[in-house]
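Long-time lurker, first post.

We've been arguing in lab meeting about whether adenosine-5'-triphosphate would sit comfortably in this protein at all. Half the group thinks yes, half thinks no, and nobody has a model to point at. So I'm putting the question to the forum: if I give you the sequence and the SMILES, can you give me back a predicted structure of the complex? Inputs are below. Any interpretation is welcome too.
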Amino acid sequence: MTAKLELRDLEKRFDETVAVKKLSLSLEKGEFVSLLGPSGCGKSTTLAMVAGFETPTAGSILVDGQSVEGLPPQRRRIGLVFQDYAVFSKLSVRANLAFGLEAKGVGRAERAKAVQAIAERLDLTNLLDRRGDRLNMSEMQRVAIGRVLVTEPQLVLLDEPMSNLDAALRASLRGEMKLIQKQLQQTVLYVTHDQVEAMSMSDRIAVMSMGELQQIGTPEEIYRRPRNRFVAEFIGDPPINLIACEVQTGGGQVAVTTAGHRGLVLGRGSAPAGRHWLGIRPHDIRIGTGGSFPVRFLETLGAEEVLHVEYGGQLLQIVTPTGQAREGDRVSLQFDLRRALLIDAGSDAVLPIESFGVAA
Ligand SMILES: Nc1ncnc2c1ncn2[C@@H]1O[C@H](COP(=O)(O)OP(=O)(O)OP(=O)(O)O)[C@@H](O)[C@H]1O
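Top reply:
Settle the argument with this. Predicted structure of the protein with adenosine-5'-triphosphate, as tokens:
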């Protein structure tokens, strides 16, 4: 049965390096949570501690409320999915699926039954006699996951399983993975540095930086209500625009003035006066004709374009439908202030402002 996973103040030090710092988070039964962050932020070390390959320096790991301290990896009932969905190329799908059970000494009849059941759930019945090296990537993904699930793990851990695959393949495998997860309802901890992967597949995302958890939330929360500058900048492609602004407060209202606009009212709240950052995502800026901001260049994405527009000495990135502007045009800019963020330049925290445009 799939289980609940709790990490409490988990810490790992390697001599001077604090790889993971007081990490607390919990995964509900059946939840798909991604650990997302740049290289070296402590994702793999966290995974290795949960799997039992690394011993925590401090803190605890609980599976269904029971500490796993001291339990070797093979006694943790954890399913690990390897990089690139490696399967044994010379073995049949059936033998690949049976491998983990055989290693555990499960008898032939029981093995056959379990393999049949998992093959049915993952739509692999017609492929049971096919060799590993005759599978396409989507089939390999299912076999790699099936090989793990057949052992009835309490938790499934995946460490950058798609990292060496090309972009088109990753996109189609992401979709399939989501379907598999929906159907199987396993508790999954998925490690990735790829925000698109995390955003598209996860129930919740835990964003890490330099060993510390920055925020945990649904993809929507992480994208729309990041807690700090790191999360705001790490999530979103193209990245959020950060515009230097001067904050004015009064009557419970917060307004900002930037190099290109005066007195933009963000909403109700309080903010320290002075210079801070106004965060606006590239999809939340509209362009108009007859303005004063020059389009320096544009990148075509297909149906959309990214305009690079000069604004008070910096280049803003703006996503528009293709064909709305050309290089050298001068455009006006309208920010969707309901979706703007105000980021404290001192603490890097996103300041809580209740937008007038969004119902409470
Ligand atoms: N065995 C080790 N000995 C010493 N330092 C280590 C060891 N393993 C990891 N580290 C350090 O701990 C920090 C976190 O590494 P970790 O591999 O967990 O990060 P990551 O987010 O998974 O990055 P990547 O995606 O590059 O693997 C890094 O500074 C790394 O150099």
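For your lab meeting: The first helix runs from residue 43 to 51. The domain at 241-354 is CATH 2.40.50.140 (OB fold (Dihydrolipoamide Acetyltransferase, E2P)). Whichever side wins, do check it experimentally.
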